[in-house]
Amino acid sequence: MFQRTSARPVRQLIASCAVVVTVFTGTMMPAVASTPSKTTYSAMQSATGDAGSSLYSVSCAAPGDCTAVGNSASGTPIAVSSINGKWSTPVAISFGSVGQYSIPSSTGFAVSCATPGNCTAVGSFRDASGGTEAMSFTSTNGTWGNVQPTTYVAGVNQAQTSAGFNSIVCSAPGTCTAVGHFNEPGAGLVAMTDSSVGGVWSPAAAATFAIGVQSTSTMAAFFSVSCPRAGDCTAAGQFLDAGGNVEAMTATSTNGEWGTVVPATYASGVQNATPSAYFAAVSCSAPGSCTAAGSFLDANGNTSAMTESSINGSWSAAVPSNVFSVTHTTHPKATFTSVSCTSVGTCTAVGSYEDSTQGNQAFTQSSTNGTWAPSVAAKIAAGVQSTSPNDKFTAVSCSKVGDCTAVGRLAANQGGQWVYDPMVATSTNGVWGQVVVTSLASLSSVANGIGFNGVSCTSPGNCAMVGDEFLAPSSTTAAIQTMTTIQAPSPPLKVRARATGTHVSVTWAAPASNGGVTSMRFLVVATPGKRSCTTTALHCVIEGLKVTSRYSITVTAENSVGHGPVSAKVIVKG
């Protein structure tokens, strides 16, 4: 499972301080070279039905088994889950004996599910004194426990004025790593990590820096974490360096032990003399082999999207995006918001850039074995986009190489008004399709638009997307949509044939994939002569063959979508 758990806008902490079922129809046709597929979208639905709620993150542990988290209109953290594709009523997370502020304010920013029904979410809440604390809450076999405030290692001078978790990954039920920040009186914001084993959290610890790297006025935070294996994680974010500049950073743990922060590096002449950079996201396909994505200020003072990659724990220099080649402007103001990697050096990053009209456009960029291909602007049908675009991809999830789904928002052209709509784009074998914009009619006739914050895909084209819909200028409602893709079956396996006189008996094993449709039938063909038989079983007999002739036997599976590739051939003599 590959996922991007949260895609709300990155908190620039430092900057601010300075199922479709169909039946067979027609006749059986020979298999074609490409595999047909059919993608459908569920109706957009409100998770809560109230104004003021939002969903920020979603995690799918299995097809149709997903959990999303966010907040209700009353400031309570909420979780909503699906089982076999059916979404349940949202659950308001209890605080138990933990005291809250008189006006509750809390949210779940990120969630990770190791198995269906076993998830942990993290975020922040306002405590009884009005300070902001980091928190977690966990479901076991589908039942949610109470909020757990974060504790800290001995010696940490921590004040509950500004603390929170931004990202989490769970490698097994109750075994998770979360990252975020906390406030240290007299110093500033401190990046932190925390881990749990068997549902028990250890005290959170501050990120460590080599001597002379960090400013004495600390301003640091981790925004994202990725753990390809329990205890082997990489976190990414930003910090204030000794010269008072904002720098992107990563830190890596091995067997649960965190190393010192590694600032992003650049080739000579690439970075601005007054740095301003951050990593919004990180994705690791193997321990120590990761790609982080975000933005930096280049030598000419332009905000440029960038990635930086590591192999076996060694980081290379940051690579600026070549978004210039698709914008046709010298000042694109580009940034990556999310990245998803399926193997070492094979990743897809998404984000937005400013075009020559100063409008914001969504774009993607992918790498293969460490080499980045040219950037690709989102493909939007004519007349859909606003004449003053303000679009962006907020999250991406890749379930296998070249098969990714990106989500975000699009400023649509609706009766001359600038309104946001949900935006989904999918790549197949590395080729991006046209953006899909979903109707809002099922949610509210007065809806002013929607944006997706998170996406999680369990296989190509099978994803859950969550976000919020704007019901009024300052009001939202949590929204959920699922995407389901079914395709033709893969080739039947283990074909066996035995000729007896003028007929041949053929058996085979079911295809490795039924394409997501349980009903299949099979066409068995003997060549030459094209004698055949059709069946829903795993065997059939072809009649009318010549006794002395040799025949090539193949089997093709078909479902409601179409015909899959033919099986390996078997030669028999009649």
Number of helices: 2
What percentage of residues falls in helices of 4 or more residues? under 10%
Q: What assembly state would you assign to the polypeptide chains in this entry? A: single chain
CATH architecture of the domain at 493-573: Sandwich
Low-confidence stretches: 1-33, 440-448
The share of residues in extended strands comes to over 45%
Radius of gyration using CA atoms only: 26 Å
Structural class of the helices, strands and pairings?
mainly beta
Descriptive overview:
By secondary structure, the protein is mainly beta. It has a domain at 493-573: Immunoglobulin-like (Sandwich), CATH 2.60.40.10. 2% of the residues lie in helices and 56% in strands. It is built from two helices and 49 strands. The strands form ten sheets. Strands 1, 2, 3, 39, 40 and 41 form a six-stranded antiparallel β-sheet that branches. It starts with a strand and ends with a strand. Residues 1-33 and 440-448 have low confidence and may be disordered.
